[in-house]
């Protein structure tokens, strides 16, 4: 029985032909809902699970729709020829996919049943019992680790990070999926060599983790805040320079055994 194909969930976008968030050409499904409120979030429309209206180019746009796994997979199937040639596949993003665990698990399971590579971009902000049920269908876990200090993490995201760090360790220990650590490099939050290295050293201590991705801050989502009638809390913060990012990359590779890349 394929009852999992009828599981329903709430998404706000499906992005096809992406070359980010996993290897090769990806189809990225963006799930609604998140437990964090990161000041720099480029998808503020993902944070609320509720269906919203956002002004886009002066016109109201409904953000969020309920779909079945079967409906999503109709789009994914169309992109299958690109996966084989590029090593790509399906990636779940958000928001935080773990807030819709049954839907996320069913999507990944459906992809695996077709031989499609799977990835999930996530903060790991859920009980490990939730994560454990998803791991059998997940090839690559792209896990954001934003800071090592719980207090500063809470100040900038709304939650401290003890649970997320514990989950990173348990996921790595399970050896059930490839775990790649990703770090959004944010001005005023974690954009010092000391802070980046603290995360990198922790990542290097996790069994089987060989890669870390540094993702430079950008303000591309600022217009979405205006469309949602919300303030953009990053103000006029500038993206870190290419030279600064390269310095971080070199520092990580000089102090750890991790392969470090800029962008993900």
Structure description:
This protein is of the alpha/beta class. Helix content is 34%, strand content 25%. The strands form 2 sheets. It has a 9-stranded mixed β-sheet with strand order 5-1-2-6-7-8-9-10-11. Strands 3-4 form a two-stranded antiparallel ribbon. The longest helix is centred in the last third of the chain and has 14 residues, at 242-255. The mean pLDDT is 97.
Compile the SSE list and pairings.
Layout: E1 8-18, E2 26-31, E3 52-56, E4 59-63, E5 65-68, H1 69-78, H2 80-86, E6 89-93, H3 101-113, E7 117-122, H4 128-134, E8 140-144, H5 150-157, H6 162-174, E9 178-185, H7 193-205, E10 211-216, H8 222-227, H9 242-255, E11 259-262
Parallel strand pairs: 2-6, 6-7, 7-8, 8-9, 9-10, 10-11
Antiparallel strand pairs: 1-2, 1-5, 3-4
Name the helicity range: 25-40%
- Main sheet: strands, sense, barrel: 9 strands, mixed
Radius of gyration: 18 Å
Number of strands: 11
Mean residue pLDDT: 97
Beta content = 15-25%
Assign the structural class, choosing from mainly alpha, mainly beta, alpha/beta, alpha+beta, or little secondary structure.
alpha/beta
Termini gap: 36 Å
Q: Please write the string of helix (H) and strand (E) elements.
A: EEEEEHHEHEHEHHEHEHHE
How many separate helices? Answer: 9
- Spans with pLDDT under 50 lasting ≥5 residues? none
Give me the side-by-side strand order of the main sheet: 5-1-2-6-7-8-9-10-11
Which outline best applies?
globular
